[in-house]
Design a protein that fits this description.
The chain is globular. The longest helix is centred in the last third of the chain and has 12 residues. The chain has 239 residues and is an alpha/beta fold. 25% of the residues lie in helices and 15% in strands. It has two domains: 125 residues, no CATH class; 104 residues, Leucine-rich repeat, LRR (right-handed beta-alpha superhelix) (Alpha-Beta Horseshoe), CATH 3.80.10. This is F-box/LRR-repeat protein 6. It comes from Gouania willdenowi. One of its GO terms (biological process) is SCF-dependent proteasomal ubiquitin-dependent protein catabolic process.
Length: 239
Amino acid sequence: MRRHPQGCEVCHSTLKPHPVPAGAAVSPSLLGSDLPKKCTFRMLNVRPHHKTMRNAADPPPGFPLLEELCIATASHSYMTDRDLMDILHGSRRLRVLDVRGCARITPSGLAALPCPELECLFWGQYFSSHSSSLPKRGFNLVTEKWCQTLRELDIANQMFTEDDLEVAMSFLAQAPDVETLRSLNLSGTKITPSALRSVVGQLTALQYLNLSSCRYLPRGVKRLYRGQGDIRQLLDKLD
């Protein structure tokens, strides 16, 4: 554990006194009572375990100072919206959320979180054998909530429908400050040329754009783009 300059602490899954071994079962409802002063908390490949609490008084305060949470997993994830809310119900300062591999987290669950100024959301599904291929909807709830603050967004391999992505991207393109979003990972999604055109045309600060394996895009477009010059040339190929 190490001390943050502002007086809060950083806890990693491999450090004492709060180790969380990979694959271990963790009770989300107990985390807040044990770790109230953490600014950064990372626990990889954990399984949430709901423990029945007898004679419980008031619910734990959560992480009021938390700015970064990483619960990414490389295996099947049991993390649900309820688990996420149990951890973050008091985290209004959260800026970075890494839920890569957490296939059971939903857009409505993310949108319900109390953090109004999230800057980085990593929600890619990189382990296809564990993720669902069923169509998803509601991603616009996420982009509408954080379109003004997101700097990095990763939804690689998320199976949102074409129409759903078009609506979601429109919120990003219509953000008051078009120079906020700098990194966008759409690899493996159903993003369409029309949905992509609005984003590329409006977000002038975008420096990283991943379109690899996007089956709904034309040939020659499905690749990684770096820098505004490279990204702006994409517009000609989308017409």
